[in-house]
Amino acid sequence: MRQRKIAIMGLGTVGGGAYDILTENREYIQATQGIDVTVAAILDRTSAPLQARGISADLFCDNIDKLAANPEIELVIETMGGVEPAKTFITKLLENGKSVVTANKELLAKHWSELEPIAQKHGCGLFFEASCVGGVPIIRAIGESFQGDKVRSIYGIINGTTNYILSKMSSENLDYAQALKQAQSLGFAEADPTSDVEGYDAAYKLSILASLAFHTCVPYASIYREGITKVTAQDIKNAHALGYEIKLIAIGTRDGDSVEARVHPLFVPSDHPLAAVSGAYNAVYLNGDNVGDLMFYGAGAGARPTGSAIVSDVIKALTGKPKYTDFDNNGRLSDGIDFIGDFMSGYYICVTVDDKTGVLSKISTVLSDNGVSIKSAIQRAGEGDTATLLFLTHKAREHSVMHALDTISKLATVRSIDSMIRVM
Ligand code: NDP
Ligand code: HSE
């Protein structure tokens, strides 16, 4: 059996996971896939990650031009992360006819439409199953299983770090900082965890998933994004009391030529399947016009699950047709698409007010004047002479709710608007 030589750029959590799977399961892959894959070069900043795994220093490479020019290497795994130098390195590799397997959702969300044509021009492939939802084969499912369906909606928990943090805050009363630290030490978080907790990572993934599912370019910049940093322990307690869990949800919907794409915390009813997705697990709840509702569930981050997706792409690339998507066409296909910013949602609103008669009625009037209808309202005694008001609204327009909140914040009897979280 001929050896198929590949390289890894970035031997960290994911690159290391992929390396371990490829070496531990080398014989199994030979027997089941009929190919012998060996890692023949590893590019990283230093050789320390190789030493840590007992890998020969002979494999270490710190020069992309050497790697790109190496005729023995036919494919490179990119698991460094970030836009640069990953983009420059991948471009060089593709231009030298080497297929690339990447987990880099930021790079794909921002530059996919530039990279895919380079891959096609040079007859190689750009593969990215590991970029979204860790070990869950969601890219392949969307790309290869719904050809007869118009996908209407995607609701996903697609960031493991934030789901881990919210789950720990919800079930173990851990504070935010402790939970984030744990997620970092388990290898789920991005090098800069701001990307996770402020919702950027989920927005990158939504851009990729929605672009594939809706057969149009859903630019990262068209996605409304809000992270979990304002979600408090009290919000989580209130959500439980009202029958909800708080999750960071990515939502993509397509209705004719209208596309809505957003990432933000959401009150999810406790009996909804997404409410039960905890820890670093991810789930994508998808609706197609013929297939109906489907839910994809599994580990959304971590060395082995993501490494598994990488290895699957390596084998696909080495055994199949070197092409992944027609994304280069999607810029044209997105012409005429209307990206909706003024979406409809239910809302949870928490306000601290002076504990005086008439305050509740004033706030209700502002909401009603803005076309926002209250589903339920609860008043609780607050500290000193204050009260806390909790509202759940019926579905309302985002812009109307924002306008109402702005007016409410200016009422003399309102001390603070403590929270606003959308409700599923
Ligand atoms: P790590 O930080 O664990 O690993 C990255 C590796 O690449 C490190 O060894 C790092 O070295 C090296 N590296 C970074 N920049 C350069 C550079 N310019 N030149 C040479 N080497 C470089 O990251 P992860 O494995 O967690 O993530 C890698 C990619 O996979 C990212 O795109 C991430 O978004 C994605 N991903 C991560 C998942 C996870 O669970 N962690 C899951 C799915 C996708 P050094 O440490 O010295 O900086
Ligand atoms: N930081 C990402 C997450 C890694 O937590 O989901 C997986 O893409």
Please characterize this protein's 3D structure.
The mean pLDDT is 94. The protein has 16 helices and 18 strands. The chain starts with a strand and ends with a strand. A hairpin with a 3-residue loop joins strand 11 (281-288) and strand 12. The protein folds into three domains: 3-134, NAD(P)-binding Rossmann-like Domain (Rossmann fold, 3-Layer(aba) Sandwich); 138-300, Dihydrodipicolinate Reductase, domain 2 (2-Layer Sandwich), CATH 3.30.360; 344-423, Alpha-Beta Plaits (2-Layer Sandwich). The protein is an alpha/beta fold and 424 residues long. Helices cover 38% and strands 28% of the residues. Helix 5 (86-95) packs parallel to helix 6. Bound molecules: NADPH dihydro-nicotinamide-adenine-dinucleotide phosphate (NDP) and L-homoserine (HSE). NADPH dihydro-nicotinamide-adenine-dinucleotide phosphate (NDP) is lined by residues 10-15, 43-45, 49, 79-81, 85, 103-105, 130, 134, 187-188, 190-191, 301-302, 306.
Indicate the radius of gyration in whole angstroms: 24 Å
Bound molecules: NADPH dihydro-nicotinamide-adenine-dinucleotide phosphate, L-homoserine
Classify the helix fraction into a percent range.
Answer: 25-40%
Largest sheet: 12 strands, mixed
| Assigned CATH architecture of the largest domain | 2-Layer Sandwich
The CATH C-level class name of the largest domain = Alpha Beta
Helix count, per DSSP?
16
CATH topology of the largest domain: Dihydrodipicolinate Reductase, domain 2
SS class: alpha/beta
Q: Any idea what the CATH superfamily of the largest domain is called? A: Dihydrodipicolinate Reductase, domain 2
